[in-house]
Amino acid sequence: MIMKHKEVIIGIGVGLIGYMAIIGIDILPFVFFISFATALYFISGGQLIKVKSVSIGENKKENSISFDDIGGQEVAKKELCEALDFIRCSDKIKAMGIRPLKGILLCGPPGTGKTLLAKAAAQYTNSAFFSASGSEFVEMYVGVGAKRVRQLFNQARQTAKKLNKRSAVIFIDEIEVLGGKRGQNHSHQEHDQTLNELLVQMDGISSDEDIKILVIGATNRSDMLDSALMRPGRFDRVVKVDLPDKKGRAHILRLHTRNKPLAKDVDIEYIAKDTFGFSGAQLESVANEAAILAMRENSKVITSVHFKNAIEKVMMGEKLDRFPSADEKKRIAVHESGHALVGELIFPNSVASVNVASRSNALGYVRNTQDDDMFLYTLDYLKGKISVSLAGAIAEDILLGSRSTGASSDFQHASDLARHIVFSGMSELGIISPEELPKNKLHEAISSILSNIEKNTMEMLKNNIDILKLIADELLDKETLSGDELRALISKKAA
Q: Average pLDDT of the chain?
């Protein structure tokens, strides 16, 4: 109906302008005025007044996630629950004179469960749940983002009242887009106005309100956030949501496999050990991919082999239909044998599998694991890792007489580790300031570290050249060796 009225008005306007042109009236001023009014309508009416509603989730039943459904984040859950108790026990905190927390910031790598924690927070406090992404507030037109912020807070209050709830949780993902440091965008002030509006809305949150609002932000770039947003009274608490440790990974895997038929040979603790450095999202993907692989084979249960293949797929990607030539395949086998042998000699029981089947961008790879998660690295450990990185190219040199471009990423990794040694004060330079260290001094220190480790690695491989040849031959024959098969070959040759 509205469209029909618009069409009639436009038709009458065009007819009048045509008639005026026929009778000799200058229509240029009218055309200019109408064009200006039309542009003003589309900019103001279309963009400022009729703002598109922010996408929100309003306590959908399917989103009833509790903290029991989230694994591997016990510390984060404990901190978050303590903050949420201020909403649940408002009368008690008033008696103690405690100011309720207005905002909680969840910081951590992607896939660690920040969104799940926010949904669980809404469930824990019986609150209306609203979610939005920081990018939804940023537009090229000044005032749009600020209005959307106001709209989001108003909708949270109104919806909570309709649902007869006493509180609402507003979750803003990628908050660094909305809450980045001010003064960095010189083209227009839209970004700064949007952030200012968020600060005003958070300052307006009061414990005396009928509907209590809690803002939960999520980011993996907390260094980009404006200091005004991070001060007490806005985001009062920063909760670190880090990658899970081995115990946490086992918990997550149990959650994601509880509805799946597992074979008796599946050991969740072993899979948790085998997935060092995986996020919660990656672990969910491992469980899902294992089930898909079992379905492909028409297997009624998911076996340990399915999980092993799923881990490699999540880490390295799907197998490719890429078939290197015989010479290239031999070089790949020698290269990976060098990595695997040195890795096992320096770090016993660390190799999970060795492969020469192409996956994603890797022609071959060695997958490593470790018994316990590490948070501090010694000089010997870092040197051992550098030795493993250089071993592939050195093995090519020993058995084939030359090196290839396949070792370029290994060399980059070795250089990064050597730089870490220098900056940690564990090199010949001693304790240094990275900013004041001349580039030539840094180059000399890194070169010295790499050169000494290269000599030691060369000697290690030459002393075990028969084992190196045996592993390479087995890889050429089977394409894949498990860690146990590799260790059996080394023990057999050593005996």
A: 81
CA distance 150 to 156: 10
- Reading the block at residue 314, the tokens are 């999540």
Contact 321, 305 (CB under 8 A): no
Please answer whether residues 467 and 489 qualify as being in contact, where contact means their C-beta atoms are separated by less than 8 angstroms.
Answer: yes
> In which element (H, E) is residue 168 found?
strand 167-173
For residues 228 and 94, membership in a common domain is answered with yes
438 in a structural domain = yes
Helix 326-346 with 483-494: angle, nearest 10 deg: 80
Q: Are 287 and 309 in contact (CB under 8 A)?
A: no
Q: From CA 443, how far away is CA 429, in angstroms rounded?
A: 12
pLDDT bracket for residue 60 (50, 70, 90): very low
In the sheet where 167-173 sits, what is the strand order? 128-133, 167-173, 212-219, 103-107, 235-240
Rounded-to-integer distance, Cα 358 and Cα 339, Å: 16
* Residue 228 and residue 254 in one domain: no
Asked if the structure places residue 321 within a domain, the reply is no
Out of 316, 348, 367, a domain closes at 316
The pLDDT confidence band at residue 452, using thresholds 50, 70 and 90, is very high
- One domain for residues 481 and 446: yes
Q: What is the SS3 assignment for 484?
A: helix
- Same domain for 251 and 236, yes or no, is no
* Mean pLDDT, range 207-228, rounded to an integer: 81
Q: Do residue 172 and residue 299 come from a single domain?
A: no
115-143 pLDDT, tens digit each: 888 888 888 888 888 878 776 666 544 55
133 pairs with which residues across the strands? 173
One domain, residues 259 and 285: yes
Q: List residues bridging with 319 in a β-sheet.
A: 359
Pairing of strands 480-482, 351-355: antiparallel
Residue 327: partners with Cβ closer than 8 Å, 6 or more residues away: none
Q: What is the pLDDT of residue 232?
A: 80
Lookup: tokens for 367: 């997958």
How far is 346 from 385, CA to CA, in rounded Å? Answer: 9
Residues 67 and 255 sit within 8 Å (Cβ to Cβ):
no
The continuous run of DSSP H or E covering 391 comes out as: helix 379-400
Do 66 and 38 fall within a single domain?
no
For the annotated catalytic residues, the residue numbers are 336
- Chain center to CA of 293: 25
Cα–Cα nearest to 255, from 493, 37, 66? 66
CB contact set of 188 (below 8 Å; sequence gap of 6+): 140, 142
DSSP secondary structure code for residue 150 in this structure:
H
| Residues in contact with 255: Cβ distance below 8 Å, sequence separation at least 6, in sequence order | 69, 70, 71
Of residues 260 and 22, the one with the higher pLDDT is 260
Residue 345 structural domain = 326-494
The torsion angles phi and psi of 158, rounded to 5 degrees, stand at -65, -45
